[in-house]
């Protein structure tokens, strides 16, 4: 069993802040978030998967040039091959990053000891998750995954993609309150980006009436570190 890889970014300075990283995009995701900018990664099998052996050969050549490797998606924890893939990459000397929605808490728990940093996507106030993901019960599972991450004390950032048609400022304020109450210290608000999004309505309705930076200023006092990625 090998990791199903739907894409590979050879060098990124944004997917793991402060690090030079390659990004391995894992195929498959059970959620159907309308603003997803990688919809080709949602099916369990992709049209142009990259063999894991090729990924490893590439990483062999990048030893000493990259700081780490981020496993993104899709949803990486969906794949049983993820822990072994992380171990193989760490054996080459790379640090390990993970992008996840925390949707499978028991699988997240299995890989947290293998990672150095996690970018955790929180979609909405937990009671309203299904409106974003299309999956009943997703908020409860994501909340459990988030708590696992906070308890593990692995370096991380918590971030939320903001589309005005899906989350208004009151929704974001309610979510920020939930996160602060759980002990989240670093929170990132990131603007919806239309590139790759397959939902025409969302692409056409993305303009905010109020700058996202203003919303960030309203919420900054709840966290030790709040930033806005516009």
Automatic annotation (TrEMBL):
Assigned keywords, A-Z: 4Fe-4S, Iron, Iron-sulfur, Metal-binding, S-adenosyl-L-methionine
Stretches assigned to the Radical SAM core domain: 15-222
InterPro entries xref list: Aldolase_TIM, NrdG2, Organic_radical-activating, rSAM, rSAM_sf
Needed cofactors: [4Fe-4S] cluster
Highest taxon of source: Bacteria
PANTHER family assigned to the protein according to its UniProt record, in alphabetical order: GLYCYL-RADICAL ENZYME ACTIVATING ENZYME YJJW-RELATED, PYRUVATE FORMATE-LYASE-ACTIVATING ENZYME
Protein's name in the database: Anaerobic ribonucleoside-triphosphate reductase activating protein
Annotated source species: Thiobacillus sedimenti
